[in-house]
Amino acid sequence: MFLDNSGDTLDWLVYDHDYIFDRPTGGNAAVGGGGAISTSTWPVRYNYVSGSISYEQRRAQVYQWHKGMLDDVVAAAGGRYMTETEGYELLYDEGSGKVTGARARNLYDGTEYLIHADAVILATGGFLGSSEHTSQWLAENEYYPMLASGNWMINGMAQNDGLMIASAMDIGAGTKGIGNIPITLQEACTTGQIHDYPVHFDKTKMNNRTGRPSTWSLNDTPLGLAVMPTVLAVDREGNRICNEFHITSGNDGDFITPKTLIAGSYYYGILGKEQIQQVAENGFLSEVNFPSYFGQGGVPRNMPIPEVYDILERAIEAGYVYKADTIEELAGKLSVDPAVLAGTVNRYNELCGAGEDKDQGKDNSYLIPIEEGPFYAVTGSVRPFSTGGALDVDTQLRVQKAGTDTPIPGLYAVGNDSMGGLLSGAKNYIGYGGAIQGWCITSGRMAGIYAGAYAAQEP
């Protein structure tokens, strides 16, 4: 259904409703032939790359387009749109088994609404904004049990609290891929930031996502420490999780990194005096990729940072960096079994001494032992855009009753509320860009068509 209708949906947006995408591209490659950013490139008709206009202009354009659609299409048809208002419970008639509307409330003044409708389309963006629901539903992932613990850092809005997904489940809706890995692209970051050092502007370089001058700041030093290839990355139980060279995007040719997703919502970057001293004297290696959606622009590579010790103290005060004289003491501060973390560090040091990473395959040039204190742990994290599965739907976007192929009359789900069938619980996201945007646009339009046809039927 997705593939058969995605092209018509794009034409519907572009030709019928004057939506402007960027110029066509041949896949996940930089505009102008700058080379592929993914090992798996696929031809796409349109993309949200920065070519002819800046992202700042794109945001303004998207806002104006959506407002125009609401004013000219929805309102003109007698519809009404309500901002700062959330639906929190479905209206369900048990006798007929039909969804008949929703309860909603205004988030500004608390006004309650009882909305009656022939059909309800859920487009709430998943449930990443709720630690309660991520802890409950991500636990269904059989491959990565650590996904279901802790609050997730979010790239985007946090209103996606899963209330309506839960309401649908309360009336018997089934789920599909609800435990899928949260959708993450390039971003590995830290769980906190400091703001003690100035932000420097470079007017000779423009950030192609914002259209504004590029920036850098020493405030991002702990961020660099968490993602640099010479760090030792461990999960919350103290076990090593990946080849640290692959933590950030671009270092393995795959834009769906970071590999730290196996650790769930956070991990620890373990460092000793050796790693910190290298940064103080030589700065960050050129292979360190600072995330574009988080931080204050990164730190210039190969620039000595003698302030690193003071920076770390400030990050310790901010609560996302830990320091100890021994690995066992550090483990205690992380609530990790000291024997496990000490064993992981000892094994890592053995690999460094041998000059070969037999466990994870990291190049020996990045193997720096962690032998001398003080020892540090920087709390790293990934920043997903959203969750990757929720309600089970059929090819008409009708929500299915749990364990059956029978739809719940009057209930539809689109976007992140129903894309579980497209993704896998075993692998992060998908090997080409735009899948979420394509699904949201196509499923949204098609659900409108199907729900409209259902509502128009004779009672």
3D architecture notes:
By secondary structure, the protein is α+β, with helices and mostly antiparallel strands. The protein has ten helices and 15 strands. The chain has helices at residues 2-17, 55-74, 131-137, 163-170, 221-227, 273-282, 308-318, 327-333, 338-354, 435-455; strands at residues 85-93, 98-106, 112-116, 120-122, 175-176, 188-190, 199-207, 212-217, 232-234, 267-271, 321-324, 375-382, 390-391, 398-400, 407-413. The strands form five sheets. Strands 6, 9, 10, 11 and 12 form a five-stranded antiparallel β-sheet that branches. The chain has a three-stranded antiparallel β-sheet with strand order 1-2-3. A hairpin with a 4-residue loop joins β7 (199-207) and β8 (212-217). α1 packs across α10 and α8 (327-333) crosses α9. The longest helix has 21 residues, at 435-455.
The average pLDDT is 88
SSE order? HHEEEEHHEEEEHEEHHEHHEEEEH
Compute the number of strand runs.
15
Radius of gyration: 24 Å
- State the helical fraction: 25-40%
Q: Unreliable runs, pLDDT <50, ≥5 residues?
A: 26-42
Main beta sheet: strand number and arrangement? 5 strands, antiparallel
What structural class do helix, strand and pairing data support? alpha+beta
Strand content is: 15-25%
Shape: elongated
Q: First CA to last CA: what distance?
A: 27 Å
With helices defined by DSSP (H or I, 4 residues minimum), what is the helix count? 10
Task: Outline the fold blueprint.
Layout (H helix, E strand, L loop, with lengths): L1 H16 L37 H20 L10 E9 L4 E9 L5 E5 L3 E3 L8 H7 L25 H8 L4 E2 L11 E3 L8 E9 L4 E6 L3 H7 L4 E3 L32 E5 L1 H10 L25 H11 L2 E4 L2 H7 L4 H17 L20 E8 L7 E2 L6 E3 L6 E7 L21 H21 L4
Parallel strand pairs: 4-15
Antiparallel strand pairs: 1-2, 2-3, 5-13, 6-12, 7-8, 9-10, 10-12, 11-12, 14-15
Helix pairs in contact: 1-10, 8-9
